[in-house]
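INFO batch 0412 | record 1 of 1 | parsing
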Amino acid sequence: MPTGCDSEWDDDAEDPAGEIPAGPLEVTAGEADAGLRLDRFLAGRLEALSRARIQALIRQGHVESSAGVLSDPASKVAPGQVIRIAIPPPEPAGPTGEALPLTIVFEDKHLLVLDKPAGLVVHPAAGHTQGTLVNALIAHCGDELSGIGGVKRPGIVHRLDKDTSGLLVVAKSDIAHRGLAEQFAAHGCDGRLVRTYEAFVWGVPSRPSGTVEANLGRSPTNRTRMAVMRGEQGRHAVTHFEVMETFTGPDGKPIASRLRLALETGRTHQIRVHLAHIGHPVMGDSVYGAGFKSSARHLPEKAAEALENLGRQALHAMELGFEHPVTRRPLHFTSPRPPEIEALYRALKPAPIAPARVPKRKAKSNVSKR
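INFO prediction complete | emitting tokens
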């Protein structure tokens, strides 16, 4: 699998869609457009803008015709109607930029792919207003951010938990944000998106591969946690897993395993909650695997030490593939296992047993003695 940037990528290749610059723009409705909703008609003509962005422009009074300002997104279009859209320049981003170190594996004017370290929060929120990935991206991208929804900010189409490491793609333009969001909404069903994770979990699943399908929602007893919901409650969530390797403790009994995981949906804490639900929480997960903390006593000494040094869940987003939303070229990236998880892996994996040495026998002579 190729890792990092495609060496044949041509950043100066023709941009088939491009960005719509700030300023006035005119579109004329044809006979086939008669009766269409205004927002739907404009979304079809202005592919670089999302329908939500167009609806906001309409409500803000930036769309008009000869009859005056068009303020209702649901109003109908008439054939021959000339519609003018005044696209304002992007507003400054709310969060402040911070020059934080980033590992960028690919970047062009539309998007970037980065390898997120564990411990980095993706988006500012209560308790994390600074030092987040968004703060770092605003500083890194600067004026290259053309505006997501009219604001100069990076477009976050998927996230990783604070203590999960691995690959993330971020949009720098409205058209890239829209195209990536469509691919993530399809969850790989159309073959364009690939997301693979590696996890080290307690115990060994009863089957070599399988699927966990269970709705997820906020825990009714702890709103900071997610939980499997009963019946029709919560949101649909599907995780596929494959057992790649198993590990034994000093007593020779299976104690942990290495899983390869693929997401069919992308819910908050999905992998961690689903694996805990089937009785195999991610090693080092203090939230969903707290009940397995005592299991560390049954690990080999070096593995117990490596898990303690890890200090987080042993979960890594190792593979990310998608179709570039503008050029339509397939992109594929892999991320090596972080050193702290690699240390756990090496400590869990038993050293190969050297073959027993067989003493050499003296060769028999075919010459008979006389």
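INFO post-check: The radius of gyration is 27 Å.
INFO record closed
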